[in-house]
Amino acid sequence: MITLTLQQVADIAGGTLIGDSAATVSQFQAMDKAQPGDISFLTNPKYRKHLAQCNATCVLIKQADAEHCSGNAIVVGDPYIAYAKVAQKLDKTPKAATGIAPSAVISDSAILGNNVSVGANAVIETGARLADNVVIGANCFVGKNASIGEGTQLWSNVAVYHDVQIGERCLVQSQTTIGSDGFGYANEQGEWIKIPQTGSVIIGNRVEIGASACIDRGAIGNTIVEDNVILDNLIQVAHNVHIGYGTAIAGATTIAGSTTVGKYCIIGGATVINGHIEIADQVTITGMGMVMRSIKEKGVYSSGIPLQKNAEWRKTATRVHRIDEMNKRLKTVEKQLEQQDSTEQGL
């Protein structure tokens, strides 16, 4: 068990401690469920009602909430960010592997740095390069001439194809595939002719990729994911996509080929993005967005239809199907009004 004194917590969070600096905590818990030895945090004012009765040893709060707290507290600018930083220090998640498993298959020409771990039944092919402190989970595959940077961890069953480059301190969750063929085919009189995908995938530093994601290699040139990008589970990134620095993409999103997503974008879950378009920096797309054209200005964009009761949705759907008819009728009425206007002005 990892324990921290409240003074250590305050130092990590960059906050001001109110209370007993020697008291210790070992895990985070919600305010209404916390017990002595736990630490909690308050970000939403609607949960302030739990503060007075909270049994946690300490709570991370803003200055405005200090008067409502009767126990130990650490005052910070942003409790959620403080929570993230402290939670990292209390994290008890095990590594995906420790040491080199006897059943791992590692090519003699692979280059392994210091303190590398490779789990059971993992395969590291010829020319692959694993930097210091890389962790490869059980059943992973690292293809020929692939490169994985210092401190990066792959959980079990991750496939990294040939020539793929992954940067430092990245985290890739189970079942993800990086460097599979892009969806490239030509059609000759109904017959599909495969186009070899000769590019690769370049992943930057501090990138996190969720479970069962798929990042395709480029057809010509590379698919690129820049530093500090976070990708959720079940995301499809097609060939030659370029994702800019600091962008966050939620689960089940699909990005078609040769699209550029700018820096610091936030893309909601189940969004579908067309190919060969550009999305500007600092664009937010809400969930279930359908992006068919380039977005040239930062801002918030939406297109998904919110949930309705079925009876209301049926009426809405019927009206949508009649939009063309209604538009024609409206134009006819407008034309009649214009003619009437002209007649009246001529009198």
TrEMBL record:
<feature type="domain" description="UDP-3-O-[3-hydroxymyristoyl] glucosamine N-acyltransferase non-repeat region">
    <location>
        <begin position="24"/>
        <end position="88"/>
    </location>
</feature>
<dbReference type="InterPro" id="IPR001451">
    <property type="entry name" value="Hexapep"/>
</dbReference>
<keyword id="KW-0444">Lipid biosynthesis</keyword>
<keyword id="KW-0808">Transferase</keyword>
<dbReference type="InterPro" id="IPR011004">
    <property type="entry name" value="Trimer_LpxA-like_sf"/>
</dbReference>
<protein>
    <recommendedName>
        <fullName>UDP-3-O-acylglucosamine N-acyltransferase</fullName>
        <ecNumber>2.3.1.191</ecNumber>
    </recommendedName>
</protein>
<comment type="pathway">
    <text>Bacterial outer membrane biogenesis; LPS lipid A biosynthesis.</text>
</comment>
<feature type="active site" description="Proton acceptor">
    <location>
        <position position="239"/>
    </location>
</feature>
<comment type="function">
    <text>Catalyzes the N-acylation of UDP-3-O-acylglucosamine using 3-hydroxyacyl-ACP as the acyl donor. Is involved in the biosynthesis of lipid A, a phosphorylated glycolipid that anchors the lipopolysaccharide to the outer membrane of the cell.</text>
</comment>
<comment type="similarity">
    <text>Belongs to the transferase hexapeptide repeat family. LpxD subfamily.</text>
</comment>
<keyword id="KW-0441">Lipid A biosynthesis</keyword>
<dbReference type="Pfam" id="PF04613">
    <property type="entry name" value="LpxD"/>
</dbReference>
<dbReference type="Pfam" id="PF00132">
    <property type="entry name" value="Hexapep"/>
</dbReference>
<dbReference type="InterPro" id="IPR007691">
    <property type="entry name" value="LpxD"/>
</dbReference>
<keyword id="KW-0677">Repeat</keyword>
<dbReference type="GO" id="GO:0103118">
    <property type="term" value="F:UDP-3-O-[(3R)-3-hydroxyacyl]-glucosamine N-acyltransferase activity"/>
</dbReference>
<keyword id="KW-0443">Lipid metabolism</keyword>
<comment type="subunit">
    <text>Homotrimer.</text>
</comment>
<dbReference type="InterPro" id="IPR020573">
    <property type="entry name" value="UDP_GlcNAc_AcTrfase_non-rep"/>
</dbReference>
<keyword id="KW-0012">Acyltransferase</keyword>
